[in-house]
Amino acid sequence: MTEHPEPAVHVIGAGPAGLMAAETLARAGARVVVHDRMPSVGRKFLMAGRGGLNLTHTEDQPAFLARYGPAEDAVAAWLDAFSPDDLIAWAHGLEQPTFVGSSGRVFPRAMKASPLLRAWLGRLAGLGVEIRTRSRWTGWRGEALLFETPEGERIEHPAATVMATGGASWPRLGSDGAWVPLLEGEGVAVAPLVPANAGFDVAWSEVVADRFAGAVLKPVTLTFSGQSIRGEVVLTCYGIEGGPVYGLSSALRAAIAADGGAVVTLDLRPDLTEAALAERLARPRGKDSMTNHLRKAGGLSAAAIGVLREIGDIPPGFDKLAKRIKAVRLKLTGIQGLDRAISSAGGVRLEGLDPSLMTVARPGVFVAGEMIDWEAPTGGYLLQASLASGVVAAEGALRWRASQTPDMSPT
Question: N or C: which end of the chain has fewer CB within 10 A?
Answer without folding.
Answer: N
